[in-house]
Amino acid sequence: MPHRHPVRVRRVDECATLDEIFRHCLPAFGGAYLRRIYTILDRAIGEGCPLTLAISGPVTVSGQHLAWLIPLLETGWVAYISTTDAVCYHDGHRSLDAHAGDPIHEVPIHSDDAALREEGTIRVTDMAFDEAVLLDQDRFLSACLARPEFQKKMTGTELRYRLGAYYAAQERRNGVPAGLLATCHRLAIPVLVGAPADGSVFLNSMKLWAMRNAGIVPEYAFDLDLHAEVFEACAYHRWGLFESEARALATLILGGGVPKNYNLQPEPALGQVLGLPNVRGYQFDVQIVTAPVTDGSLSSCPPAEAVTWGKVDKDTYLQTTESMQADYSMVMPFVVKALLDNHSKREGYRLYEQRDALCERLREDVRGNREWLLRSVDYPLAQ
C-alpha cells in the first residue's frame, strides 16, 4: 500500500507566523495548492537556487510592484525577469513631473466606460488614470530614446537598463519611490521582454523612426538586437546550470503569455537548437496562472507538460513543481511576506554586469559544437 499522509491541521489562533499558516492551515483543495506553491518556493530559496521570474499583467500600473515585487527583488534571490513592454512603460507614470506620486486612482470594475472616455480617463480593470499621463509618458520616453547613448543597435536588456537610470533620476527629483526599472538598474537585474513591439516603449521608438524616414529629424539609429537578447537569456540559463553555486535554477511564473514562454525557452534553445550537451530545465517550477489548461492557452506551462519539452527537470518535477489556477494579485503579498520572514537576504547575482563575459563563454561552447551545428542546417529542401 502506498504511503499515506494523514491530514493534520493547526488552529489559526495557534499560529504565530504566516509560514505556520501556510504549512498547517491549508489542508485541502485550493488551499493545498497554495501550501504546495509556498513550500516549493521556500525550499528553492533555502537551497540557494537562483530564481527567475516571469510576470505578465498590469503589475506596475496597479502598484503591485511597490507592494511585493520590489521587496522580492531586493532579497537577492532573483537572477532575472521576463515581462512585457507594457509593464516597463507604465512603470514610469508615478515619476512624471506633472503627475508625480499619485497619477493612478481607483474606479469600480463595472464603470461607465463611455463616461470615462468622455472625461479623458483610461481604465485598467479597477485602476484608472488621465489620458494626459500617457501623453506625458510618451514625451518622456521619446526624449530618452533620442539621447546619444541610445543611437545604436542594442539588446532589450541594455535598453531597459538605460531607461532604468532615467526613471530613477525622475523618481529622485520628484521624491517618489523607486519603480521596477530603477530597482532592476540598481540591482543589475536583467529585464527581458519577448514581445518588445507589443507595447508603448517600442511605439515611441517607431515614432522617432517614422520621423527620421519622413525627414522631420536628421537621424535616429536605435535598433533592437533580438538575436543577441535571446542569446543573452541562454547565457544566463547556462550560468545557472553550470556556474552558479546551486548548479540549478528555479522559476516563478505569474500569469501566462509571452513572458511565461520566454522564461522557459532557454533550455530548448541551448539543448535542441544549439545542440549543447547536458542542458537541463528548471529544477523548481512554480506557476500561478488564471488560464485553464483545457483551452490550450497554458501550452508548455504546466510543469508536467514542460517536462516533455525538457524545460523542467524530469527527475525531480513530482516533488519540485506546481501550477495553481489563481489570480496572483490575491496571494503574492502573503507568499512574499512569509518568505521574507523565513529567509535572509543575500548578495544579488548582478547578472547584467556579467553579461558580456557570460555571453562570451556561451559563444565558446557554440564554437566547440561546430560540426553538430553545421549538420543541423543541412536539409534536402524541395525545389
Provide a descriptive summary of the structure in words.
This protein is of the alpha/beta class. The protein has a single domain (12-367), classed as Deoxyhypusine synthase (Deoxyhypusine Synthase, 3-Layer(aba) Sandwich), CATH 3.40.910. 48% of the residues lie in helices and 11% in strands. The protein is built from 17 helices and 11 strands. It has helices at 18-24, 29-46, 64-73, 85-90, 113-118, 131-145, 156-174, 180-187, 200-213, 226-242, 257-264, 266-273, 303-309, 317-320, 328-342, 355-368, 370-376, and strands at residues 51-55, 78-83, 105-106, 121-124, 127-130, 153-154, 191-193, 223-224, 250-254, 284-289, 321-325. The strands form 3 sheets. The protein has a 6-stranded parallel beta sheet, sandwiched between helices. It has a 3-stranded antiparallel beta sheet with strand order 3-5-4. Helix 3 (64-73) runs parallel beside helix 15, helix 7 (156-174) crosses helix 8 (180-187) and helix 10 packs across helix 12. The longest helix has 19 residues, at 156-174. The relative contact order is 0.15.
Helices, strands, pairings?
Blueprint: H1 18-24, H2 29-46, E1 51-55, H3 64-73, E2 78-83, H4 85-90, E3 105-106, H5 113-118, E4 121-124, E5 127-130, H6 131-145, E6 153-154, H7 156-174, H8 180-187, E7 191-193, H9 200-213, E8 223-224, H10 226-242, E9 250-254, H11 257-264, H12 266-273, E10 284-289, H13 303-309, H14 317-320, E11 321-325, H15 328-342, H16 355-368, H17 370-376
Parallel strand pairs: 1-2, 1-9, 2-7, 6-8, 9-10, 10-11
Antiparallel strand pairs: 3-5, 4-5
